[in-house]
Amino acid sequence: MSADKRPIGVLVMSYGTPESLDGIEAYYTHIRRGHPPTAEQLEDLTSRYKAIVGGVFPLRENTNSQAAALQRKLDELAGKGAYVCYQGLKHAAPFIEDGIAAMAADGIQEAVGLVLTPQYSSMSVGGYLKRAQEEADKQGISFQGVKEYHLHPKLIEALSRRVTEGLEKFGEARADTLVLFSAHSLPAKILEMNDPYADQLLATSAAIAAAAGVDKWQFTWQSAGQTGQPWLGPDILETLEKLASEGVRSVLATPVGFVSDHLEVLYDLDIEARNFAEERHIRLERIRMLNDDPHYMAALADSVMGLANGRNGQ
């Protein structure tokens, strides 16, 4: 990189999580757009965090590790100093706007935004990119965002390897094991908006299954919000109920819409879904999450560099 060329900023965005149990109420209040949770709602969320972290809070480190690993991969592929990674979280500090402001303070003039979610929805990734774009405009930074990378070959390779590895846990029952892909549900009204989220999740699942040589698989939803409006379904617990009635006895949970260990994986799948499955005589195992997997980092770095170099139309 020439001395007069400024580095390109990379805003690594994710949902965010509290730094400690003490921060759960403020975090939940932000999710609820400034409305504090009821005592019952706060106790429910706090109990879930306690169940998975036991008073220790490693979840925040996952995003930190991913951002650091992406920085190393960009340094390796593009040369040190070509890109500089910043974090921007949706519901916790540093917020998306904080990340863009930090870029401006460092003299960044060009930036690429990347959400740690492979599939695009106007309600998820679209919302992150909109906030980043608005702040970039205020700061005078030229900004563009990676919309999706749900079929990137390196992503599919990383996930298919995990499916193959996960199936080995079942030994002789492997041939009868169903691979159950899942992702975070969204309000069902996205179907009226021609939103690509559901189709992209199915495409990712099909590609992983093909790469892993898996014929027995299904897709289901999980972690729907309690908002009083319909959400995409069926929920994973409904799916497990149906599978039990059909005689399925071994399931490999593959949360294809998530990229790290966090509440929706460590509680919703590892505790709630697993207990529900056991009660119905189903053995439920889960694949390892991507976290800072080298293949995943390669997919992210390639997506960033491709957009910055004009190689795709994201």
UniProtKB/TrEMBL annotation:
SUPFAM superfamilies from the UniProt entry: Chelatase
Positions bound to Fe-coproporphyrin III: Y15, R32, R48, Y49, Y128
Family annotation (PROSITE patterns): FERROCHELATASE (PS00534)
Main location: cytoplasm
Pfam family, one: Ferrochelatase
Transmembrane segments: none
Pathway(s) the chain acts in: Porphyrin-containing compound metabolism; protoheme biosynthesis
Catalytic activity: Fe-coproporphyrin III + 2 H(+) = coproporphyrin III + Fe(2+)
Annotated binding of Fe(2+), by residue: H184, E264
Enzyme Commission identifier(s): 4.99.1.9
Keywords carried by this UniProt record: Cytoplasm, Heme biosynthesis, Iron, Lyase, Metal-binding, Porphyrin biosynthesis
Compartments, as annotated in UniProt: Cytoplasm
InterPro entries per the UniProt record, alphabetical: Ferrochelatase (IPR001015), Ferrochelatase_AS (IPR019772), Ferrochelatase_C (IPR033644), Ferrochelatase_N (IPR033659)
Family: Belongs to the ferrochelatase family.
Family annotation (NCBIfam families): hemH
Main function: Involved in coproporphyrin-dependent heme b biosynthesis. Catalyzes the insertion of ferrous iron into coproporphyrin III to form Fe-coproporphyrin III.
Entry protein name: Coproporphyrin III ferrochelatase
Biological source species: Cohnella boryungensis
